[in-house]
Amino acid sequence: xxxxxxxxxxxxxxxVLIQVLILNxxxxxxxxxxxxxxxxxxKLPIGTSETKxxxxxxxxxxxxxxxxxxPGMHAAACTLTGLLRQPLINFYVGxxxxxxxxxxxxxxxxxxxxxxxxxxVVIHHVALFLIESLSFFDxxxxxxxxxxxxxxxxxxICIVEAFNIERQKSGE
Length: 172
Hints:
The protein is an all-alpha fold. Helix content is 73%, strand content 0%. The protein has helices spanning 2-21, 38-42, 50-68, 73-92, 105-133, 139-171. Helix 3 (50-68) packs antiparallel against helix 4 (73-92), helix 4 (73-92) runs antiparallel to helix 5 and helix 5 packs antiparallel against helix 6 (139-171). The chain is globular and about 45 Å long. The chain starts with a helix and ends with a helix.
């Protein structure tokens, strides 16, 4: 229990710092920004109550909003994805998972984790960019921004997850 709390606080602080200090300053072709902080919500233990997931999701989105000067956009998109997290896990992996496991390549399998993570990122990015634009004025540009940001975020999450798997294997 204490280990999970320490792990969650560590991930929260580190991912917020990486997002705010580094990734918010990356605008690939002035179109896309990766949002690695989603990894915090994705990696919450299975069996975490839906209320806690939604509160954690809102908090990390709110903190990102504070540092990014984006009033409520990340909080709203994160809250939506926090609400949909458990149904996504149930849909892609099933309901008979042991509580306390962390979503990963090893617990979900490579295909299951990638489908879960990609759907999660798509929902977040579509919500975030629609809230940001508040219109369909230039739908092609909006679609390009969404797709490129999804690709960058997903690639970063897969890289971090691969390093986590390697770290766990070497620690055993």
